[in-house]
Amino acid sequence: MQETLTRLPHFVGNHVLLVATFVVIILALIALEISRKFTGYRELTPGALVQMINRGSPLVVDLSAIADFEKGHIMGSKQVSPSQFDPENKDLAKAKDLQVVTVCRNGTESGKAAKRLVKAGFTNVATLAGGIGAWQRADLPLAKGKR
Asked: Does a structural domain hold residue 147?
């Protein structure tokens, strides 16, 4: 151990670019974890969402376009277009203390919607990481049609 510590400055001096890249990666990972901690919502894997659905009845809000929703969606999810999504809506406001999971095709719109829900005072918000694409890659079933 002592020998390793004495050789460390020599290694750093000879491999400045490698060490700098390592430090940048570590700092980026720390920043990502800190930002994830303060978003107010969590990201779920498809398996974690299945467990949540099996244990209770979360409100799954699908923000896909209606045509995409009809091609395939998570059974029991409610379709809302992103332009119509309003956390202050009286029907949605009733779910402030329920588990709410936002879903979209690839995870982009659902993250924006989750932020809006948290800002509106929802306490138990999550998103499906990777969206319906991740759900399909996990070989989980999709319902077709309007419901």
From this structure: no
Separation between Cα atoms, residue 118 and residue 21, nearest integer Å:
35
**69 lies in which domain range?**
42-137
Rounded to whole angstroms, what are the CA distances from 114 to 17, 58, 72, 104, 109? 39, 14, 21, 11, 9
User: In this structure, is residue 29 part of a structural domain?
Assistant: yes
C-alpha torsion angle, residues 97, 125, 103, 117 (rounded to 10): 80
- Convert the pLDDT of each residue in 93-125 to its tens digit: 778 888 999 999 988 889 899 999 988 888 899
Are 32 and 60 part of one and the same domain? no
Q: How far apart are CA 65 and CA 9, in angstroms?
A: 56
Q: Are residues 106 and 46 in the same domain?
A: yes
Record the pTM. 0.75
